[in-house]
Amino acid sequence: MILEKRMTAEEYLEFERTSVVRHEFVDGVIHAMAGDKKRNNRVVRRLIRLLDEPVETKGCDLFFTVVKMQIPNGKYRYPDVVVTCEEDADEYLIQAPCAIFEVLSDSTEDVDQGEKLEEYLKIASVQRYVLLRQDRALVMVYARENDGWRFSLLENTGEFEIPCIGATLKLEDIYAGIV
What CATH fold (topology level) applies to the domain 36-175? Predict the structure, then answer.
C-alpha cells in the first residue's frame, strides 16, 4: 500500500516512531510493509540462530525486520536481517551495516533484486548482500572484494562467508527442515 501524501525524511521518521505498521520510505513516499509467509519467517529465524553466536563473539549487533536502515540516498528500508559492527548514533536507525539479508517472496523479489540491490551495494560499509529463496535452498551472494563485487549462486549445497563477524554459513544449516 502506498500512502499518497508526500513526506520529508524528518516527517517520515517521526510518523514511523508511532505507527503500528512498518513503512519503507522511497522518494518522499511511504510504502506499507506486507506480512510474511511462515516459511519466510522460518528462514529469518534460522539465520538469526546461525548468526547470533558469531555476532556476539565479535561484539557486533544483529537486527531483523523491525529496525529500519538508512540508505545514503535518503531512503529507509527494513531488511529481513542485518548485521552491523558500528555503534549508531540514532537508536531507531542502522546506518553502517556490514551484511544484509533479504528473504525473497513473490511481493518483494523484484524490489530486492533491483532497487535494493543497487542501493545496498552503494553503502560503503556493506561487505555482503545475501538473497535467499524461501521455497527452495537457493542463495545469491554479492560479496565486496578489493576490485569490486563478486556474485555467487549456491543451490542445494555450499557455503558462504560473512567476514565482518568471521562466520561461514552453510545452505544445509539454513534450510534444514524448512524446504
Answer: tt1808, chain A (3.90.1570)
Residue by residue, pLDDT tens for the chain (179 residues) are 444 568 888 888 888 887 767 777 888 888 776 656 687 889 999 999 999 999 999 999 999 877 889 998 888 999 999 999 998 788 889 999 999 999 998 888 998 999 999 999 999 999 999 999 999 999 999 999 999 999 999 999 999 999 999 999 999 999 998 87
Nearest Cα to Cα of residue 128 among 89, 85, 66, 88: 85
> How far are the Cα atoms of 16, 54, 94, 176, 178 from residue 136, in angstroms, in the given order?
34, 25, 29, 11, 9
Contacts of 134 (CB under 8 A, 6+ apart): 37, 39, 40, 42, 43, 103, 104, 105, 178, 179
**Cβ–Cβ under 8 Å, residues 80 and 102:** yes
Q: Write down the residue that cell numbers 572484494 correspond to.
A: 145
- Partner residues linked to 142 by β-bridges: 129, 151
Three-state DSSP at 147 gives: coil
pTM of the model: 0.84
Per DSSP, helices labelled H in the chain are 9-18, 38-58, 109-113, 115-121, 171-175
Instruction: Give the residue extent of every domain in the chain.
Output: 1-33, 36-175
How far apart are the C-alpha atoms of 21 and 151, rounded to whole Å?
A: 34
